[in-house]
Design a protein that fits this description.
The complex is a heterodimer of chains A (275) and B (285). With 275 residues, chain A is an all-alpha fold. Chain A is built from 14 helices and no strands. With 285 residues, chain B is mainly alpha-helical. In chain B, strands 1-2 form a two-stranded antiparallel ribbon. Classes of the chains: A mainly alpha (275), B mainly alpha (285).
Chain lengths: 275, 285
């Protein structure tokens, strides 16, 4: 076989493997969520039903709609503020040449290397004494802070590609920094801002340890904590319900991944992945 | 307004947030670790007592061994799977965007949901894993109930959920390789496989090192997947350091929990330094 043919064969095999490896657990989740009895494999037959999906919205003791709402709100505001604050800082830092810049960038990145558990205990104390335990604020504040270094790095990658002359001209014309930022930089860097927003949203939606320690009930608990605590009335695991709730919660994220993959690839690699 | 003061205003939110909700908690944990800080007892300065207790704690020692072993095995497999994935999605083919999106799915969905999926795959009575085990070997086995089985199940779940990240980093590295490095090899008649091992992989070394450091630091703090899938069991054999710290906090032992969290940080720091030294990345930056 010639090299081109061999390569085609390898590529086909690679794609098949990728589909199998990345998708099969998700398909398994979908099948279990749609089956009447989660033990269909040992029964040898499967009955398809929507009961599990109806149940997670109907069964009040599961609180699933609350978790979903909480996660969406916390994710949205964390992403909004992390993108805004990261953008403001990235703008100034890409417009100066001071030696401080490099130190700041490395320092901020080093900060994001701290394991979450080393913050969680003290944050719990802090939020308790501030009376914020089990509120959205208790989650949004640490999420913004935790994601800011990351947001800063992504946005600096985008902003540094915008020539300085463009906003310098506006500044000379009498616009102040904020005007130059909001009227010139923001529209030009929209893809970068979008990928930052998406990445922070996904992070905040998925975060577990902080949410576990800083919330106590359905008023602030997010989806991951809720799903990790799902239990039937008698302590058994309601697998059909768990998988239905997991699928519903994962669906928006799966759609984001499929539709915005180029922004996510670009964002996660600091702008290095080309199309 | 003074121009520099306006600049500071742009930087202020970033610093304020990082200071208040990252640096203060970390320093707070460092200070807390020097105190006896348990519910229902007066707080008392005890110096390095918590660390001395830590060094004699067999549960902690077991957790360190487990965490290191788990990180080594899963990061190795993730790097291998990441290189393979990146090589495929770096090629030109129809529907590549869709395949790239699919690669992102395990990364995009919450770890807890991924962990629940894998927990049910390995479910003893009616999980799909034992379905195949029964069909192939006639013998179902309680994977999550045996130390080696639970370990491998956790590795599988972790490799699944983090390979996308590795693949993204490596893909970026592949796209930035100059095509000229292949020219001589083509003239020399080196085949595709030889080119991959002799040229692509060595040229990717800096980016592989970056992926390795990020992944190792992240693997060392593994928590959510373990809490959901095994809870540290059976018999504490899959308890990670983070899980131990969480359990200490849960029992109201803040001093000891803080000492454990400082220990993870130090471990991650030391390993990152070792990588940097070994990879000589300093000279390349």
């Amino acid at each position: 076989m010639n090299e081109a043919g061999f390569k085609k064969l390898l590529l086909g095999a690679g794609i098949a493997l990728i589909l199998l490896f990345y998708l099969s657990p998700v398909i398994w989740m979908a099948v279990v969520s749609l089956s009447k009895n989660a033990d269909f494999l040992s029964r040898g037959r499967i009955e398809i039903t929507c009961e599990n999906f109806k149940n997670i919205f109907r069964e009040r003791t599961l609180y699933f709609p609350f978790y979903l709402k909480n996660s969406l709100i916390v994710g949205f505001f964390s992403a909004l503020f992390a993108t805004l604050f990261g953008g403001l800082a990235a703008y100034i830092l890409t417009r100066t040449d001071s030696r401080l810049k490099k130190i700041l960038m490395v320092g901020v990145l080093a900060v994001s290397m701290f394991p979450q558990i080393s913050l969680a205990g003290y944050l719990f104390r802090m939020m308790t004494s501030a009376g914020l335990i089990n509120t959205y604020t208790a989650l949004i504040l640490p999420y913004i802070s935790w994601c800011l270094p990351f947001a800063l790095w992504i946005l600096m990658g985008y902003f540094s590609q915008i020539p300085r002359d463009i906003d310098a001209a506006a500044l000379i014309d009498g616009a102040d920094r904020f005007r130059a930022f909001s009227r010139i930089i923001v529209p030009l860097a929209l893809p970068g801002l979008l990928s930052t927003f998406l990445l922070v949203f996904i992070f905040a939606f998925n975060e577990f340890l902080f949410a576990l320690m800083l919330t106590t009930d359905h008023n602030a608990r997010t989806v991951p904590v809720g799903i990790s605590l799902f239990e039937g009335l008698h302590g058994e695991l309601p697998w059909g319900n768990i998988m239905a709730a997991s699928l519903i919660s994962a669906l928006p994220l799966i759609l984001l991944a499929l539709f915005f993959q180029r922004y996510i690839f670009k964002g996660l690699s600091g702008g290095a992945v080309k199309q | 307004m003074n121009k520099h003061r306006a600049d500071l205003l742009f930087l202020a939110p970033l610093f304020l947030f990082v200071l208040l909700f990252v640096l203060v908690p970390v320093i707070g944990a460092l200070i807390n670790s020097l105190f006896r800080d348990v519910s229902f007892l007066p707080v008392k300065f005890t110096g390095l007592m918590n660390y001395i207790r830590l060094s004699g704690d067999s549960a902690f020692r077991k957790a360190v061994v487990f965490t290191l072993l788990f990180s080594a095995v899963s990061v190795f497999l993730e790097m291998a799977a990441g290189i393979l994935t990146a090589s495929v999605i770096n090629e030109e083919f129809r529907m590549r965007g869709l395949i790239r999106g699919i690669v992102l799915i395990p990364w995009a969905i919450p770890n807890v949901i991924g962990a629940r999926m894998w927990q049910f795959i390995y479910q003893f009575e009616y999980g799909v894993h034992n379905f195949f085990m029964k069909a192939l070997f006639g013998m179902p086995e309680n994977w999550l109930g045996s130390p080696a089985g639970a370990f491998s199940a956790l590795v599988a779940a972790d490799v699944w959920r983090t390979t996308p990240f590795v693949a993204i980093i490596i893909l970026a590295g592949m796209q930035n390789l100059p095509t000229s490095i292949y020219d001589q090899a083509k003239v020399d008649g080196a085949g595709m496989i030889a080119r991959f091992f002799r040229i692509t992989l060595p040229a990717l070394k800096p980016i592989l090192l970056i992926a390795l450091i990020f992944r190792t630091i992240d693997a060392l703090r593994i928590f959510d997947v373990i809490l959901v899938m095994t809870g540290g069991g059976p018999g504490g054999t899959t308890s990670s350091i983070s899980l131990l710290g969480y359990k200490a906090f849960l029992q109201g032992d803040f001093g000891y929990g803080s000492a454990i969290s400082v220990a993870i940080f130090l471990l991650a720091f030391v390993i990152a330094m070792v990588y940097l030294k070994a990879g000589r990345i300093k000279e390349e930056i």
